[in-house]
Amino acid sequence: MDRSRDETENSIVSEIVKHATAEIPDAMIESEIDRLVQNFSYRLMYQGIKLEEYVKYMGQTMEQFREQFRDQAQPAVMSQLVIDKIVREQKLEAGESEIDAKIKEQAVEVDKSFEEYKKGMDPRQLEYIKNDIIITKLFDFLKANNELYTEGGEEKPATKSAAKKTASKKTASKKSAE
């Protein structure tokens, strides 16, 4: 994925999440905080610093350090809930032929046969390909059923077909999140 596509997709999800409501269990927030702390710890490790040393240097307890991530965790969990709900309601899936097509693309890039490349793949790689296909379908759906806005605030159809959609269609993803 390129950077402008990532920014557009993040903008779409952010806009949808603004209008979504859900009760988020504390366990989900804590799990997201765990993930954020782990990522921070990995970044520190690349610099030769242990997380415990960093927290001590900052004059904090681990609980205080973790609390810093709470404001980040809530919207991240909400975004994931919204995405999961839309994927379920729209029945977005990655078919075997789509997965095989992606594997063939990758096999060509590394100059291997499809069979040879697929045989050597880790299950996590297959899951990544499957998720990438589903996320691509999700954003294609969102772009086709919602309006995007330019930096100047001017409304611009996401696609030609989106310009023809009724107002009720434009809020399809918003309703999915409720």
How many beta-strand elements?
2
Helix share bin = over 70%
Q: Give the percentage of residues in beta strands.
A: under 5%
What's the pLDDT, averaged over the residues? 81
Terminus-to-terminus distance: 29 Å
Low-confidence stretches: 157-178
**Helix-and-strand structural type:** mainly alpha
- Work out the count of structural domains: 1
Describe this structure in words.
The protein is mainly alpha-helical. The chain has one domain (3-177): Orthogonal Bundle (Trigger factor, domain 2), CATH 1.10.3120. It has helices at 3-18, 26-46, 51-57, 62-67, 70-89, 96-109, 114-119, 123-144, 160-163, 167-170, 172-177; strands at 147-149, 155-157. Strands 1-2 form a two-stranded antiparallel sheet. It starts with a helix and ends with a helix. 11% of the residues are buried.
Secondary structure blueprint with pairings:
Blueprint: H1 3-18, H2 26-46, H3 51-57, H4 62-67, H5 70-89, H6 96-109, H7 114-119, H8 123-144, E1 147-149, E2 155-157, H9 160-163, H10 167-170, H11 172-177
Antiparallel strand pairs: 1-2
Helix pairs in contact: 1-5, 2-5, 6-8
